[in-house]
Amino acid sequence: MQDVIGKLNYQDPGFAAVYPQCLSWVNTECDVRQLKAEVVQYAASLGMEAQAQALSANSMILIGKIAYCLNRGAKLAPSSSQRIRQPLEAVVLEAPVVEQDQPQWEEIPSTAQGRKLSKIVNCTALLDNVRARFNAGRCDIKAVADETRAVVRQHGDSKPVVIRELVQWYKQRVQDASSNPACRKWVKPLQTILNTLNLLASNGSAVKDGARRARKRLVASTSNERDRQGEKAARKVRVQQDNTLGIKSVDPKNVIGATAAVLYNTRTHHIELYVATEQVLSMQGRQLVGWDSKVSMCKTLRKPEEILPHWSKASTLTRLFVLGNTIRGKQHELTGKVTTHHVILKVM
Prior knowledge:
The chain is α+β, with helices and mostly antiparallel strands. The protein folds into three domains: about 1-95, no CATH class; about 110-205, no CATH class; about 225-345, no CATH class. It has helices at about 1-5, 15-30, 30-45, 50-55, 60-70, 80-95, 110-135, 140-155, 160-180, 185-220, 230-235, 305-315, 315-325; strands at about 260-265, 270-275, 280-285, 285-290, 295-300, 340-345. A four-stranded antiparallel beta sheet has the order 5-2-1-6. A two-stranded antiparallel ribbon has the order 3-4. The chain starts with a helix and ends with a strand.
């Protein structure tokens, strides 16, 4: 694209089709600071470098893209150069230009809080690049979710505190994009990023909550009350840990003694709710036992990225029943079998 920009000539017949593509490419590849540097470089050739330095970076997004092309030898219409001159000349008319010192960036301290902030900043920058690539047509919406999980895992270390901060940030970004007509096309990738972060955050909380409840049940029970056969069987059960959704499974041992368990089958997309009414859940071989077939349910999820966070966040059995009844579709038969395609989503 650099070669194409350098050969631009507004007198060529195909200029009207190629020039907007070049501006879109510059918008995707360059941040605000780089665009300002391009304006300053072009203004220096006009003897107006000081005026360019006085302008704010956010006011240079459009003229910065034009300056980028002119700095690389593009032959644009005289009106393009005039479009850069106008804001520069306005600075002269308003007040004399005063040289400003370059801002001194404060280094992030090497503390726990500083490391957390560094992870958040890195993840935000990379996720914004994912959004820009989608809007530029360089990836599809599924790749946005996949890259979001990869960024959180590699640059955020899947830390719950980092994910929670990212969720709050992208909630605001979605609201801002929805309210701004110029940014409406950002809503879809930003919402996908937010849904993926919500799924990761709720899943991490559900796994911790399952372990906490299991420890509480273990402490409250006596040695004679413990289901040792069920614990032994649960240790041999293998569930899915690596999946395309990036969610983790509750330890099968934490199911022993629980009154309800939610399982998700990543192959069939079935959400399975096992509820014990007269006794508690246990394991025999690779099967869950002790559940009531009259109240337990199994249905198919159409959009797991959006629906699963609600199941992970549910705090009562009533809420789980409400979520199950809102899913349209037929009821599937439950077997209680736990396979390597299953993820134990929640235990309570």
